[in-house]
Amino acid sequence: xxxxxxxDFYKTFHRVYFYILAAGLAALCFxxxxxxxxxxxxxxxxxxxFAVMLLEYPVIILPMVTQIVFSEEFQFHTLKNTxxxxxxRTLLFTAKLITSILLCMILAAVVLAAYFGxxxxxxxxxxxxxxxxxxNFFMRLGVSCAVYAACITMSAFFTVLFRRNGLAIFFYYxxxxxxxxxxxxxxxxxxxxxxxxxxxATIRKLSVxxxxxxxxxxxxxxxxxxxxxxxxxxxxDLC
Amino acid sequence: xxxxxxxxxxxxxxENLEYYRIQRGNKDKGCVERALQFxxxxxxxxxxxxGFSLGMKQRLGLALxxxxxxxxxxxxxxxxxxxxxxxxxxxxIILKMNRExxxxxxxSSHILGELSQIATTYSFINSGRLVQHISAKDLKEKCxxxxxxxxxxxxxxxxxxxxxxxxxxxxxxxxxxxxxxxKVDDPAPAVKALVENGVMVSQVYQSGINLEQYFVxxxxxxxxx
Lengths: 239, 225
Fold this sequence. Notes:
The structure holds two protein chains of two kinds. By secondary structure, chain A is mainly α. Chain A has one domain. In chain A, 77% of the residues lie in helices and 0% in strands. The longest helix of chain A is centred in the middle third of the chain and has 34 residues, at 89-122. Chain B contains nine helices and eight strands. At the A-B interface, helix 1 and helix 5 of A face helix 1 of B.
């Protein structure tokens, strides 16, 4: 497992795409804090509160990471080299999923460093910017990470299921953003609160003690898509 | 190795092999360089895999396959799409691998003529069924060429050739035709002797079957050799 993850890290860190993605996200963070300077919200506490509102947006870029780890291996037919060496497919799928999650954590670290770094550079320190505010933010971020992990697993499943990248991304966004409308059409509104997107509303609004449901929903979603992805991966033609 | 190698286009030859070395848990870092040297790709430097010719890609695929010094190597259609120089290079690498590393190489191919230059044992498979397993020596014997002499009397021809040249491998095919399996490349002395002994020779030609014809006959159930 460790050597499979190590190899995927070697591959990812030897391509420009990942660095461009990280640099682009970091630049966006700088831009946001730069835009906030001087105005009513031009202080650090406002920036942290604004960051809580942005916790849902990383969901958009997560498929880019699964594309690097999973999709291009299908595109370039490189998995046959690994499979023909006798590597267990479930182990391979698990390793790639863990790699995707770890790469997202690295991207998250870059984004956080850029966001807080630019916040200290451009914005004013105010009295409301306290350690408890930061603790609260990082608690919400931690719960969001569980939802991100579920999203990555879902994206990995669709990437394995469909040969075309476009279709995989379409289904990923479709399930994440449109499932609530689908449930309304089927008169199943009572299940809306169990969707991944709905968990971000909980993370944004509720108190720290109410995070049990997002964690549970994320865990169940991760498990379901992990099993489905592993089964699809075992059956996929890799040549 | 399965037909065209699948490797990462944005990585160099060395990086591609390094990726798989790490993945396989091979602690010997020098194996990458040795594999590249063995297939003649040590000088590709920073050139990415996407810029390689098909021959270079095949050689890199072979380097990947031999990186861990396997005892047996299974190659599926390894020379598909290669130009003549690429085929020649590939053949010499396979022979070198067999001689220097004592690797047993199992090649699956439809290009039978090419196989005849390197194979020591053949297995013919048709519709998933093993039709025949034969050594190259035996196959060569079955595919040998012979001299076909058509004259007014096959018996007289056979007798004269046996007496004058001590030929032993002479087969009488019918009342006019004999097959001579010796001195195939130089029929002139035999023809001269036959004419001088009053035999009317109407045709002399070399005949035989190649590997492709042998396989076709085998599949169609015809007798070979």
